[in-house]
Amino acid sequence: MLFDFNFASIPHIIFGAGRLNEIYGLIPKFGNNALYVIGGSSLKKSGKWDEIANTMQKKAISFSEISVSKEPTPALVDAAAQKFRNQKVDVVVGIGGGSVIDAGKAISAMLPKNDSIKNYLEGVGNKAHDGRKIPYIAVPTTSGTGSEATKNAVITELGIGGFKKSLRHDNLIPNYAVIDPQLVLSCPKSVTAPCGMDAFTQLLEAFVSPKSNPITDALAKNGIKQMKNAIISTCNDKALDITARAAMAYGSLMSGIVLANAGLGIVHGFASSIGGLFNIPHGVVCGTLLAESTKMNIKRLEHLGTEGKIGLLKYAIVGALINGKESFEEINVAHYCSILIERLDNWTKQLNIDRLGKYGITTADIDSIIEKTGLKNNPVHLKPEDLKEILIKRI
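Predicted structure:
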């Protein structure tokens, strides 16, 4: 094989149960004034925030905090940057789910700018961010987006003319990613399930992406191998099992690394368009559309004949992998593609992933959704009627 690819840098990764405590040694590397970006309530309800605040005070490290309860908007980021821009923040620490991690990433990037983030968003503004930022430490408390390892922050503005777009620059990758599976133990099924499906979607879409490479393939397969059994068990009998939670956290981390390098497909194309039009969790969009989108991709790849062989083989490898197969040299492609589809269907049902209709989406909205949906790095071209079929089945 003739290798020819790029691979973006990744954060300094600190992974392991109990390793949250290492942030107190990391922060002084950048200075003595930290800005914490945290979630709306879960960190405080768990008592973990009080523990963090007390430790910061004992170590005489100055800090401020801002809470993020929903997906970050331009208004939220602009307000935070304006409030803290003149307070000489040395480091931003984001502790929370994907929305919090993205918000912290965006705030760290906009603190040095006396400008609105809208001007730098892809497809929205007309300025390119230069990568200058306040150093950033990302600490995820869910296993889903992999944002702790990516160079973009997703910003959402809802409604007519709404959008879900990225602020992106190679230098916006967090300086440190601290992944402590103990922080995920308190995650309820309602959060664990869609987040897990989001992470798995990212692993699968990056693996079958035309931009995949030998490194992303290896990391995606490894992440899938770790997640394949834990994705259901962490929502049931192993919700408090640190080993299962670590497997999910690891899979999520890998998903962030591979998506940053190989890109994503139609499921995330839908997530972008739907997320800008409706108030619906990102993980729910991914989780509810994954099985049907995979079915459609496989169907269209089969119609391509020889040209679709590589894509079908990759889907079959994932089917074989989740079925416990270790060697992929000789596999029945049709058989394992069917196994993959069946498993994704079962996961969607077992995890009780919401349908789109629960969030007010109807068949009358399909055309406007499709109009805003891009194929991204999908392994095969899909026509508008294909996209419509996928959506109808999950409304």
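Summary: The longest strand covers residues 33-39.
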